[in-house]
Amino acid sequence: MAHDHAHDEHEHDHDEHDHEHEHDDSAGDRERELVRRQALAQIRQYPDVALRMRAREVTEFDEFLVQLVERMANLMHDAQGVGLAATQIGVLQRVFVFAPDDEPMRAVVNPQLTLDESEKLVDEEGCLSLREVRVPVERATKVVLEGKDPNGDDVRYELDGLAARVVQHETDHLDGVLTIDRTDPESRKRALGTLRPQPTLA
Amino acid sequence: MRHTEGVKRPHAEEILGEWGIRDVTPPSQRQREQLASDAELNPHVGTRLRRRLRNFRADPDSYIASLGGPLPYMQRLRQIEALTREHLARLEEAYAERPADWPAVAARWDFDDVNDLIERHNRWYPVEARLAMDPRSRDFVKVGGRPYRRDPLDSAWVLERFPA
User: Fold this and answer.
1) Chain A neighbours among B 81-140 (CB < 8 Å)?
2) How many domains does chain A divide into?
3) Residue range A175-201: average pLDDT?
4) Domain of A168, in residue numbers
């Protein structure tokens, strides 16, 4: 799931020191953007069929799984996302990582979600596999997430707010479901228009 | 009287717009003459255009590759090829001496360096190269008609090339 930069911009007091660091900041921004693009180059983009396939349950908790989670966490961080499912990198296993806001990264294997249907909220969601598309999606505001960590130990998280939204989004990925499937018809139409390949001179 | 009576019936070619360029205006005539004179000097007249409309975008990995050179999986494949060639050369030297216990030599041959790279290739290549998937088989498509997975090098590989 993509990070919403609009909510994350820090306001700076402009003084003479800002001008000194202006050049460094822009160089840092360029580097971050390059790193983000490199990460996105490894994340499957719509309409890749892997995004539409249901992931299999993980049965072996081995070194590969630990490496996979580590790689996914790095990719998610570099791509400036808040969640990443294994299907998004072409691995059909039920694993995802998430790190909403400044919380530490968590990885969940074979996740099971229990939704609190009493309260739902519609909010815009982006996705690392849907480029710049953001669509409104209705989600439960509270969930209980159960599963295992990469070492095979049981984990249980009671989540709300953005974290709850992120884990629902990532669990959808493991079932081959995208945000454009959960949004209203008008938003879906607009999103598909954006995602349609554009003729380019090459 | 029908309300369309008296209205000129349009021809099909007018509807489809197949009449070519019409209504030449002085500016468009000047542009046309200029283009014609340019064409006389243009060495590419009559050759196919290299730039053309394509109904897709360039892949991000090819874009990144164009910026920063070969991607990690490309470099790893190159390393695998280079190390395999090195092993082959060393094996050829060893084989030339015709050791009596050649199968044992082949069995003891240390392929750890290249096999480690092959294992990493088999594990991460589809992810790094975003290898396309076949939805029916739920597996990755073949690359150049062959599975992307590579077999690790072992004594059988040696004896196939340098029989005992």
Assistant:
1) 123-124, 126-128, 130-135, 138, 140
2) 1
3) 89
4) 52-195
